[in-house]
């Protein structure tokens, strides 16, 4: 799908504030509210705009420690098995299959370093995990939501 400059501006408005009305967005991009709605509907239908969500600050809910954990699996472990082993762990915020030494990298949220240690040990208990390597995230330098 072709996304033109106006669509990019609409997307930027919605990323900035997903609760903006079509009228609010229209004023910012010089279109009528119905024209904005048509464009948003088209982008949703074509999968460019996947949905709207609330952004929650994990620290406000007590998860003040965040880490990236590299997982090294035994040879022959499939991605479906990796996904299914990670899915029940609520502290896993994201997981990626990657190139390089590790097979997978997960981003986890924990209450504190002791809770992080518990999560790492839980990940290591999975029989197919050979080893892990962790980095605690000290601060977020850039966060893009687009």
Structural notes for this entry:
The chain is an alpha+beta fold and 146 residues long. It is 37% helix and 21% strand. It contains 5 helices and 4 strands. It has a 4-stranded antiparallel beta sheet, covered by helices on one side. The longest helix has 13 residues. The radius of gyration is 20 Å and the shape is elongated. The model has no long low-confidence stretch (mean pLDDT 94).
Q: How many β strands by DSSP?
A: 4
What can be said about the biggest beta sheet? Answer: 4 strands, antiparallel
Strand content: 15-25%
The number of helical elements comes to 5
- The H/E string reads HHHEHEEHE
Strand line-up across the major sheet: 2-3-1-4
Using the CA coordinates, give the radius of gyration.
20 Å
State the distance separating the first and last CA atoms.
17 Å
Which consecutive residue ranges, at least 5 long each, have pLDDT under 50?
Answer: none
Q: If you average the pLDDT, what whole number results? A: 94
Helix content: 25-40%
Going by helix content, strand content and strand pairing, the class is alpha+beta
Shape: elongated
Brief account:
It contains five helices and four strands. With 146 residues, the protein is an alpha+beta fold. The protein has a four-stranded antiparallel β-sheet with strand order 2-3-1-4, covered by helices on one side.
């Amino acid at each position: 799908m072709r996304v033109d400059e106006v669509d990019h501006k609409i997307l930027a408005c919605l990323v900035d504030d997903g609760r903006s009305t079509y009228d609010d967005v229209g004023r910012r991009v010089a279109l009528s509210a119905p024209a904005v709605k048509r464009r948003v509907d088209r982008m949703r239908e074509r999968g460019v705009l996947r949905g709207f969500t609330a952004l929650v600050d994990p620290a406000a809910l007590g998860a003040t420690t965040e880490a990236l954990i590299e997982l090294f699996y035994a040879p022959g472990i499939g991605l479906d098995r990796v996904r299914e082993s990670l899915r029940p762990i609520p502290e896993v915020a994201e997981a990626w299959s990657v190139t390089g030494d590790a097979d997978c990298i997960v981003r986890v949220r924990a209450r504190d370093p002791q809770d992080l240690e518990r999560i790492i040990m839980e990940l290591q208990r999975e029989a197919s995990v050979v080893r892990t390597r962790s980095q605690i995230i000290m601060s977020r330098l850039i966060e893009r939501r687009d």
